[in-house]
Amino acid sequence: MAIALFALGARRLASGLRLLALSALILLGFTPLAERFAATLEQRFSPFVENERPIEGVIVLGGGVNLAASASRDRLVLGGAGDRLVAMADLARRYPQATIVFTGGSGYLAGSSRAEADLVESHLATLGLSDGRVLFERESRNTYENATMTRALLASKNLMPKQGAQWVLVTSAWHMPRAMALFRAAGFDLAAYPVDWRTAPDFEGVAADESAAGRLRLFDLAAREWTGLIAARLLGHTQTLLPAP
């Protein structure tokens, strides 16, 4: 009798979990929930507005290159965050006197892949930039190391931003809160230059041109980013969970 009751309870639990999973898929795939979850991150920092002050320095975070495809094809193959490199090329052109820094190594744990910075440097001409125009930090594996290693690189070359100088941080809008928190903790005073938005508040829900699978990927992206924010705070790498603009 006890075994039968246990088996019945297990079947009911399994049925309940399946129903819960199906409900979650429907909510995340066919409602604006995923967009609104991600928009909380993307709307934290507004788009950069040009002002009378020149941009004297630009720090661009890696993550916009498909490392495997670029290495195997010997071409610069942009990934989902390729807007970061587009912004880098645009800012380098419009501010010819600005210091441009690209920070990005390899996120592969085995360490067998080429650093993203190496791939970008090899194909600067593709972006319309000349050799030597960009300063590369090529050892970092995550955003925390982007911040600390960029600081070490700039300090070694006596290029740390001077007080009052306008420097900008370029990364995806959904990644900007964590990036700003980590760079502030590393001693930088930067203006946010978000790119690569994934949400469009005026076109969410039924009006959005987004598949259910796309919404699930968006939710996964936002969930991983929130996890990164929490982890950075718990590890003491940042001074606040969600930094102010």
Secondary structure: helix percent:
40-55%
What is the name of the CATH topology? Answer: Rossmann fold
Biggest sheet character:
5 strands, parallel
Total tally of structural domains: 1
Shape: globular
Query: What is the strand content?
Result: 5-15%
Q: Low-confidence parts, pLDDT < 50 over ≥5 residues?
A: none
Task: Please summarize what this structure is.
The protein is α/β, with parallel strands linked by helices and 245 residues long. The protein contains eight helices and five strands.
How would you describe the overall organization of this protein?
The chain has 245 residues and is α/β, with parallel strands linked by helices. 46% of the residues lie in helices and 11% in strands. It is built from eight helices and five strands. The chain has helices at residues 2-30, 33-42, 67-73, 83-94, 116-122, 143-156, 176-185, 212-234, and strands spanning 55-61, 99-103, 134-137, 166-172, 191-195. Strands 3-2-1-4-5 form a five-stranded parallel β-sheet, with helices on both faces. The mean pLDDT is 88.
